[in-house]
Amino acid sequence: MSQDILLIGGGHSHAILLQKWQDHNINQIHLKLISDTEQAPYSGMLPGHVAGLYSYEETHIDLRRLTKLAAAEFYQDQAIGLDLKQKQILCRNRSPIPFDKVSLDIGSTPTITSIPSAKDYAIPAKPVPIFLENWYQFLATVEANPNQSRNLAIVGGGAGGVELALNMQQRLQKNSNSITIHLFQRGKELLPQQGKWVRKHLSNLLQKRGIKLHLGEAVNAVFPDRIVCESGYNLDTDIVFWVTQASAPQWIAESGLTIDERGFILVNEYLQSVSHPFVFAAGDIATIKNHPRPKAGVFAVRQGKPLFQNLQRTILGKPLKPYHPQKHYLSLIGTGDKSAIASWGNFGFHSPLLWHWKDRIDRQFMAQFSRNH
After folding, report:
1. Which domains, and CATH codes, for the chain?
2. pLDDT tens digits for 183-195?
């Protein structure tokens, strides 16, 4: 009996699933992917693209091509709702798409809804296509008038905000010495999840690069030309990027799926919804019950294979295989100058060798999606 398997989102886990599906196609299974973009960004190389070290093509996966090689259908649209009773996905621009089983890998976006004015005037780091469009436009205005003084603000002092600041600084200095990057962090310290050495080293590096740190400053309003903090501090700005804690889209909570306290889909060790067994989820949008981990690309990459295996096993009526994410993982932060910082617990190391090692791993990862089968 035929079944419709629907993949929502073109994240890393789904890209790996599609690549593996090419060699393990199942008869009478109609595989479909819905994504709001044809080109899926690879998070591991995106900061390097911002710094000008990689081209757009080198950092993006061609989802339309990947689905074609997997003998699957590609729908370019945005999912805006999930009807669990009728088993269908609601889309922005087309009629609902039915499914027998569904998998979600739609990532996350920075929490911006708590400050209404930020939604209007700040640029979230995700969705990536919107972020890149604004970044390219800003680069073009700088190149057109490199001597004009400008303030670029980044809100969020976690790993994402710090890495973005360093890579933007490297790219902008090629065109202008008149831009000041300001990094705002609500807490008194940057990178609260990292070890002491990494926190101190990166704080020193940011300041050495001329990036202004605003620690203990909570931004509570964003205007077209300035931001305002709870303390009353004001800064005139030309552009504001928002890189705060990750959040899930509201329609996930409204669907009736069991979620965690932050709105992400709660899944079991098989990457299967704890409330609806026909729903799978991976990457940032999923939280594994009893094994919560940071929202990091490394986990999305590692979940690709077990997601593929368990989706096929559930179709074939075979027992599912448990996946247990590692407790500790190596975090690599690129500094935009072909060097990187490695963080493991309380230990850290900064070297160009780390970047070259990371570059080789990233290029190997991307190469698997350009092969023809």
Report:
1. 3-108+248-332+358-367 (3.50.50.60), 116-245 (3.50.50.60)
2. 999 999 999 888 8
